[in-house]
Amino acid sequence: MSAAKITRSNSWWELSATWLPSTILPHLSLLDRRNVLEVGSFEGGSTTWFMRHFLAHEESRLTVVDTWQDTRDPECYGDEDYSTGNFDAVLQRFLSNVRNSPNSEKVRAIRGDSASALASLLPTASSSFDFIYVDGSHRASEVFLDVSLSFRLLKRGGIMLLDDYKWVGERQSGQRPSDARVEGGCGAISQMAELDITAAIDSVLASVPGGVEVLHCGYQLMVRKLGESVDVKAPEQLII
Ligand SMILES: C[S@@+](CC[C@H](N)C(=O)[O-])C[C@H]1O[C@@H](n2cnc3c(N)ncnc32)[C@H](O)[C@@H]1O
């Protein structure tokens, strides 16, 4: 497949691609069978990189999740199709980029909100992914869910890469009160500073069973899962 067939409007992923291979290689043999999950694909910058580098083994698989629709994300993507609400055009670009990249038969895409999509994977895919890339929403409450659910989907010893670990959005910085910490309590919620992404990610990772090992800490964070997650069964309704 030729890289010339890939159409993109940005170069976000290229920043990661400069340091990631040398950082990840000591921890992950890219030729092994790999089960990979990506949250947030946009037009497939990171997706197509993972396809080229993580899917060599015939049994390797990549699952990706994205809404490809307006989520009122606090980040402005600066993409003409996104800003004019033409999300299907971005989805078509994603599909075309994936079809024109190696190992496309090993990719499955789920269009939907990440919280619902990740939760729906839990009953069958708990603790089954070797590598998870989280690059979806930039809203702390959603990042919190993405990281919590992804963590349960990650194998013990598996690696999670979190984009935008140090992202500070305009809305957050513009609205933050000067004394960012207002004492908690129900009445204070409206005056409290919005949680930033760093705090959302830290609060999940500091409280997961078994903890994590930090492998890289910069604008992106890369961690290894140390403990086991409890197996989750599909919910069942009890007859009362
Ligand atoms: C920064 S872009 C991803 C960029 C991509 N990983 C790359 O390297 O080119 C973030 C993506 O997350 C998606 N997204 C935002 N909120 C989401 C949510 N709640 N559920 C699923 N996808 C979401 C957006 O539609 C967007 O395509």
UniProtKB/TrEMBL annotation:
Q: Which CDD domains match?
A: AdoMet_MTases
What Pfam families does the record point to? Methyltransf_24 (PF13578)
Q: Which SUPFAM superfamilies match?
A: S-adenosyl-L-methionine-dependent methyltransferases
This chain belongs to which protein, by name?
Class I SAM-dependent methyltransferase
